Amino acid sequence: MTAIFRSLVLAVLFAAMGMGAARAGSEAPAGYYADQKVVYHNDGGGPEATAYFKRLLGNLRNHVEAVGREHVAIRVVSHGDGVALFQSAANDKDLASRIDALKAEGVRFLVCANTLRERKIDRETLYGVSEDDLVPSGVAELARLQGMGFAYIHP
Questions:
Q1: 74: closest CA among 150, 130, 142, 155?
Q2: Tens of pLDDT, residue by residue, the chain (155 residues)
Q3: Measured between alpha carbons, how far is 26 from 78 in angstroms, rounded to an integer?
Q4: Is the pTM of this model over 0.90?
Q5: Is the dihedral of CA 96, 97, 99, 103 positive or negative?
Q6: The domain at 35-153 falls in which architecture?
Q7: What residues form DSSP beta bridges with 75?
Q8: What are the extents of the domains in the chain?
Q9: Nearest to residue 65, comparing CAs of 53, 57, 54, 76?
Q10: Could you give the CA distance from residue 107 to residue 122 in angstroms, rounded to a whole number?
């Protein structure tokens, strides 16, 4: 009889775990996520760059909303074609306002100085990019942040 009882208890536990996972898919209960450090890799979106950038910024917004501003540190490292996000935002008010809103939530946008130098892009032409936002190398920054415990995401 103890084997039957043990099986019943395990079945109830597994069912409860499954219900918790299903519920988490809709709206996470308070305290569901532990504090997070995350680096998003932005290397551009190819021919559909604007759509890619809007999805990226939407992912960032959703991430902050799910975990909570005070529980997540997010860095976005942009290099190569990813720098076009800030070139586009200079003329696209929607992109610009999305970037501003994310910055207000604590998201840091970092830009590769190598890309700017190699492509002869003046930092001043990039929307919202200050000298403090430049990193010597985008790929080296990705590795540095991962070494500091940041989880890597490439949307």
A1: 150
A2: 455 544 444 444 444 444 344 334 446 777 899 999 999 999 998 889 999 999 999 999 999 999 999 999 999 999 999 999 999 999 999 999 999 999 999 999 999 999 999 999 999 999 999 999 999 999 999 999 999 999 999 99
A3: 30
A4: no
A5: positive
A6: 3-Layer(aba) Sandwich (3.40)
A7: 39, 108
A8: 35-153
A9: 57
A10: 23
